[in-house]
Amino acid sequence: MTDPILFSVHEGLARITLNRPTRLNAFDEATARAWERITAEAVARDDVGAILLDAEGPSFCAGGDVLGMAAGGFSADGITELAGVINRGILSLIESDKPVVAAAQGTTAGGGLGILLASDYAVVGEDSRIGSLYANMGLTPDLSVTAQLHRAVGQRRALQLVLQDRLLSAAEAVEWGLVAEAVAPDQVRARGEEIARFWLAGASAAYGQAKRLVRAAPEQRTLDQLGDEARTIGAALATPEAQARVAAFAAASARKAAR
């Protein structure tokens, strides 16, 4: 049996690959359980400095397995329970101090939008389409879509997306701030890996903490957030890596000023 999600770690990069291409990488029970387990492992490993989330096949993720639902493969209680399983994986990524880049080719729809939003930086193909489409099937958004979408694009645009059967073009998704970049379709995964390698080549711990602070901000009072920022930068400055980088930056600035 083919693994529904592939996982590997190489030189600090954890790659999580959705692997049900014939079902548009939609989540069934096996995929949901694998997602929860793999995301938890990725964020817990000390040898992981960045995470790349990508997918096999022509599309990134269609959310839940609608064909399975139509065939009676899910009960109402079963759907609720599996959504909770997938949500725990999403929270693992969001709440971690590992920066996550998504390389999302083709179509992203339904709960796949929540999977995309679990990344901190998203790259799509110039031919990609992104939307909600829940209401077309009489369903409501899940997998963090209502929790995250309005934070990414604002409440009015979030409502436009969930109250219509609209699929955003790649250019519109970039304009809305839903994704960071649109590249040639055959370059999506390569560009995603390039971004992850950029983090790993730099002060990866600092990028991870910056991500955590931004992600935590909506849940904290301003005073608490400021305290978190102060503690975090103090802890960062105490590391040998930061001390070396600060010294190098100061030396370079001094040389520039002396010219």
From TrEMBL:
GO terms for biological process: fatty acid beta-oxidation. One of its GO terms (molecular function) is isomerase activity. Keywords: Isomerase. InterPro entries: ClpP/crotonase-like_dom_sf, Enoyl-CoA_hydra/iso. Pfam families: ECH_1 (PF00378). SUPFAM superfamilies: ClpP/crotonase (SSF52096). This is Enoyl-CoA hydratase/isomerase family protein. It comes from Microbacterium rhizomatis.
